[in-house]
Fold this sequence. Notes:
The protein is mainly beta. 4% of the residues lie in helices and 55% in strands.
Amino acid sequence: xxxxxxxxxxxxxxxxxxxxxxxxxxxxxxxxxxxxxxxxxxxxxxxxxxxxxxxxxxxxxxxxxxxxxxxxxxxxxxxxxxxxxxxxxxxxxxxxxxxxxxxxxxxxxxxxxxxxxxxxxxxxxxxxxxxxxxxxxxxxxxxxxxxxxxxxxxxxxxxxxxxxxxxxxxxxxxxxxxxxxxxxxxxxxxxxxxxxxxxxxxxxxxxxxxxxxxxxxxxxxxxxxxxxxxxxxxxxxxxxxxxxxxxxxxxxxxxxxxxxxxxxxxxxxxxxxxxxxxxxxxxxxxxxxxxxxxxxxxxxxxxxxxxxxxxxxxxxxxxxxxxxxxxxxxxxxxxxxxxxxxxxxxxxxxxxxxxxxxxxxxxxxxxxxxxxxxxxxxxxxxxxxxxxxxxxxxxxxxxxxxxxxxxxxxxxxxxxxxxxxxxxxxxxxxxxxxxxxxxxxxxxxxxxxxxxxxxxxxxxxxxxxxxxxxxxxxxxxxxxxxxxxxxxxxxxxxxxxxxxxxxxxxxxxxxxxxxxxxxxxxxxxxxxxxxxxxxxxxxxxxxxxxxxxxxxxxxxxxxxxxxxxxxxxxxxxxxxxxxxxxxxxxxxxxxxxxxxxxxxxxxxxxxxxxxxxxxxxxxxxxxxxxxxxxxxxxxxxxxxxxxxxxxxxxxxxxxxxxxxxxxxxx
Length: 666
C-alpha cells in the first residue's frame, strides 16, 4: 500500500497521470533508491510512445548522447518533428518550429511547469543543458488542460535528472574545433531516508570568433554562460514535496569583427518552484497537488543602435484534485493561473518606448475526464473556462482519443483550442538586427487564439519495427505576425483574415540487423498566412516545406562501441520579396527562383564505453552546408537595407568535437 500511494503522489506531482505528457515508461533501466518512481522500458534513443494517449515522440537520455547536445537547442537535430534554426545572424538566439509554426506556439514545460515564456523565449533553449536532461517528450496536438491553455501546436516536456538517480557524480565535458567548450556536473545525493537532492552545474563559452562567409560579421557571438540548479525531494507514504531553484547568467557579444556594429546581450534568469502532493485516503484513489513556479528575468540588449531592456516576473500556480472512481473512470478538477509583470524600454526601427509596463494574467478553472477500457480505448476530455482580464471569458475544450483495435495498430485523434499573449519584440527578436523601419505597436499584447485538430495511425510490425502516419492542421482566429516583404517591417493583426498550417509526417523505424537500428522520417508542411503588404494569403517565408531525416545506430562488443549517424535534407522555402533582389559578390541574384536552395546535413559520432566513463568524438554538418550571405547589405550596417534576420540555413561549416562522460554510481 505504501508503494501504491507513493506512485499516485509521484504521478500527480511530476507529470499527472493523465496529463497526456508524462514520464511513464520512458526511463531506461537505472539505479534509483525510490522504487516507487522507477519505470523500466527499453532504452530506445528516439521512439514514438505506444502507450501515451497523445502522439508523443520521446528523446531518451541515450538519444541525447547521440550528438554533442550541449543544450536543448542542439537536441532536436535528429528529429524531423522539430526544426531548429537561428532567429538572426548576430545574437546566436535559436528558435524551433513544430507543425510548421514558430516555437512560440509550442508550450515548453519543465516537468509540467510552463517555462521559456515571454522575454525568456528567444534564448531559453540554450539555458537547458543536454546532460541535465533525462528525457524530452514532444507531444503534437492539443495536450491536457491541466498545464494551462498556452499550447497551440503542441508541447515539449523536459524531464531533468532526479534527486533519486543514485549518481553521486556525473561529469560531462566537451570541446569543439571552433573553441566552444562545455562543462556539466550532476550530483544526486541521499540526505536521509526521506530526503534527496540533486545539484547541477553548467558552464560554456567560446574564445574565438569565426567569419566563414567573409561578410565581416562573426558567424556566432562570443559567449559565456553559467548555469546552476538545486532540486530537492522529500516524501512519506502520504505526502511528497519537490522544490528547487535555478540561476542563469548569459553574456553574448556578436556583430562585426572589426567594424562598429555590435550586439551585446546580458540575461539573468532566476527560477524557484515547489510541488506538494497529498493522498488523503489510504486506498490511493484520490490525491491533491499544488504546483507553483516563480521566474524573474532581466535582459539588457544592444543591436547596433537598437536597444532593448526588459524585466519580467512570472508566477504560475496550479491546484488540482484527482479521483479515480473505478479503473475505467477518472476525474481531475482544478484551477491554474499565470501572472506576468513586464517592463520594457525599446529603441529601434524609428520607435521609442520608455518604461512600458504590462500586467498579463489568465485564470483557468478546469475539469478533465478520462475513460479507459483496458489498453484498447482511452478518452481524455478536458474543458477550461479561461478568464482573461480586459478580454473576457474563453471556453477551451480539448479532446484526445486513443484506440487500439489490434496489438499491431494504434489510432489517435486530437483537437482543441489554445490561447497565448503576444510579445512583439521577444517573439520576433531578430527584427532588432535590421536597419528597417518598424510599423506597428511594439507594446501591444494581442491575445492569440487558434484551433488544432489531427490524428495519428501507427502500425507495429514487430517490437522494434513500426510505421507512423500523422496529419495535423492549425487554424488561427486571432494572431500577430510580421510582414517583412518590403523595406519596412509591419507587425499586424490578422483582423479576420486567414492563417493556417497543415502538416503531414511519416516515421518508419526498423532493426534490420542485430545491433543496427534505423529510423527514417519525412515531413511536408503547408503553412500560409494573409499579408497586408500584398493583400493576399501567401506561403510563410523561410520555412522549408519538406524535411527528411535518417538516423542510424550500430553497437559492437557488448555495447562498448557505439556508432551514430544522422543525415537530413531540408527542402526549399520561399524568401521574402526584398530578398529576390539580393546579389552575391559577383553581381548574380542569390535567389533567382524566389526560393532558398535545399541543403543536406550530416552528423556522425563514435563512442567508446569503459567502466564508469565514455569517450566520444564526432562531427556536425559534414557537408559544409552554409547560408553564404545571411546578412543583407553587410557593409552598410546602419542603412535601411541592412538585415541580419533573414536566416534559413546553417551559419557555419563543418565542426568537430571530442568529449568525455564520467559516472560514479553509489
